[in-house]
Amino acid sequence: MAKTGIIRDIDKGRGEVIRVEISEYKGQTFFNIRVWYTDPNGELKPTQKGIAIAPALVGDLKEAIEEAKRWLA
Question: Which pTM value belongs to this model?
Answer without folding.
Answer: 0.89
